[in-house]
């Protein structure tokens, strides 16, 4: 047996012992996806976390995802195999107080005027727009969710915003997702200066180069990419949206504008179709921190428990529940 197979076997028996379910994001390492009970995008994983029948959820992803699982399923023990697996975008915005400066963050670009600068906290924005609804991307910490009216993911942001009666919407923290929502809903979107460093680094030049290299391919982009990149794509959707699109499409070749971890499922589920990364360096280091060894350690020792305090969990759950109620 290979080292990988030994670790995978160990995980299967630990899962039984702990009555555990393993949830993995589409960006996880191939061998981690292989031991997961369910692999999906942020929305699918939230639905799984809310409804799954088990004692322990092992969340192979980044910390905001494990936090959401704990918010939705407080009676279960939620383990994050690598505590250092965080999402830099989720850590950018603050409710109040301490202000972060992102100007020197790799990939930073100046944005149009409707985007609030990075040194504004959520409370600052709410004070300026007291009548606006607050829509929060799930890539945020639990205390930001607790201050929100409703959450969204990349797959339902447009539906969520259209479900809200207010015309004025504070949409945080990803400026690119917000601009995509503004373009597709016609609502007044008040955005903030956050971004995903994996997607925001992609430029229209990269799109042009990929199209020149693969002239017959259909180009899919994630809405965390810049608006001009999304506008230059053939299809804009979440990671699982890309899986559905590729499955249903007659095209034989695709350019994939998201983190390269998705290539594994795309290839496995679509034999005979070809997938090229939009750029080979679209790698999220945090998503790659979780290894089989980390999963074994978490399950064997029941460590790295993620628990959200009740005063934050209850309002955060309301915002997540409202999102999950939208089909
Ligand atoms: P989705 O899988 O929901 O599209 O999310 C992408 C992402 O960046 C998660 O961190
Ligand atoms: Fe965060 Fe981007 Fe990594 Fe997703 S891919 S976890 S948004 S840094």
Structural class: alpha/beta
Fraction of residues in H or I helices: 25-40%
User: CATH superfamily of the largest domain, called what?
Assistant: NadA-like
Catalogue the unreliable spans.
101-108
Distance, first to last CA: 44 Å
CATH topology of the largest domain: Rossmann fold
**Can you tell me the CATH architecture of the largest domain?**
3-Layer(aba) Sandwich
Bound molecules: 1,3-dihydroxyacetonephosphate, iron/sulfur cluster
In short:
The protein has three domains: 3-86 and 287-308, NadA-like (Rossmann fold, 3-Layer(aba) Sandwich), CATH 3.40.50.10800; 91-195, NadA-like (Rossmann fold), CATH 3.40.50.10800; 202-277, Rossmann fold. It has 14 helices and 13 strands. The chain has helices at 3-18, 30-35, 42-51, 63-72, 122-128, 142-146, 157-162, 175-185, 204-213, 227-232, 239-248, 262-269, 292-301, 310-324, and strands at 20-25, 38-40, 56-60, 77-79, 115-116, 133-137, 150-152, 168-172, 188-192, 218-221, 235-236, 253-257, 274-277.
Could you characterize the architecture of this molecule?
The chain has 327 residues and is α/β, with parallel strands linked by helices. It has a 5-stranded parallel sheet with strand order 5-9-8-6-7, sandwiched between helices. Strands 2-1-3-4 form a 4-stranded parallel sheet, sandwiched between helices. A 4-stranded parallel sheet has the order 11-10-12-13, sandwiched between helices. The protein has helices spanning 3-18, 30-35, 42-51, 63-72, 122-128, 142-146, 157-162, 175-185, 204-213, 227-232, 239-248, 262-269, 292-301, 310-324, and strands at residues 20-25, 38-40, 56-60, 77-79, 115-116, 133-137, 150-152, 168-172, 188-192, 218-221, 235-236, 253-257, 274-277. The model is unreliable at 101-108 (pLDDT under 50). It folds into 3 domains: 3-86 and 287-308, NadA-like (Rossmann fold, 3-Layer(aba) Sandwich), CATH 3.40.50; 91-195, 3-Layer(aba) Sandwich (Rossmann fold), CATH 3.40.50.10800; 202-277, Rossmann fold, CATH 3.40.50. Bound molecules: 1,3-dihydroxyacetonephosphate (13P) and iron/sulfur cluster. The site of 1,3-dihydroxyacetonephosphate has 13 residues, from loops.
């Amino acid at each position: 047996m290979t080292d990988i197979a030994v670790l995978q076997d160990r995980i299967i028996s630990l899962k039984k012992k702990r009555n555990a379910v393993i949830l993995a994001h589409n960006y996880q390492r191939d061998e981690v996806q292989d031991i997961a009970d369910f692999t999906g995008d942020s929305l699918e994983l939230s639905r799984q976390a809310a409804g799954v029948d088990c004692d322990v959820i092992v969340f192979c992803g980044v910390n905001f995802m494990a936090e959401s699982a704990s918010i939705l399923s407080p009676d279960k023990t939620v383990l994050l195999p690598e505590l250092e697996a965080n999402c830099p975008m989720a850590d950018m915005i603050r409710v109040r107080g301490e202000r972060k400066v992102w100007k020197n963050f790799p990939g930073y670009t100046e944005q149009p005027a409707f985007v609030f600068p990075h040194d504004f906290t959520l409370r600052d924005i709410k004070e300026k727009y007291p009548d606006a609804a607050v829509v929060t991307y799930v890539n945020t910490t639990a205390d930001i969710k607790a201050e929100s009216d409703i959450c969204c993911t990349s797959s339902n942001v447009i539906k969520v915003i259209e479900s809200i009666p207010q015309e004025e919407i504070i949409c945080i923290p990803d400026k690119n997702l917000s601009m995509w929502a503004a373009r597709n809903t016609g609502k007044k979107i008040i955005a903030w200066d956050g971004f995903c460093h994996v997607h925001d680094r992609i430029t229209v030049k990269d799109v042009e180069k990929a199209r020149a290299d693969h002239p017959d391919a259909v180009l899919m982009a994630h809405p965390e990419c810049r608006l001009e990149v999304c506008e230059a794509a053939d299809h804009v959707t979440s990671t699982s949206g890309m899986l559905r699109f590729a499955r249903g499409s007659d095209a034989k070749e695709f350019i994939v504008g998201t983190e390269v971890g998705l290539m594994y499922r795309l290839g496995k589920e679509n034999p005979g179709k070809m997938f090229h990364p939009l750029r080979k360096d679209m790698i999220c280091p945090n998503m790659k921190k979780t290894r089989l060894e980390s999963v074994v350690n978490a399950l064997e020792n029941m460590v790295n428990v993620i628990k959200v305090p009740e005063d934050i969990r209850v309002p955060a759950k309301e915002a997540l529940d409202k999102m999950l109620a939208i089909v």
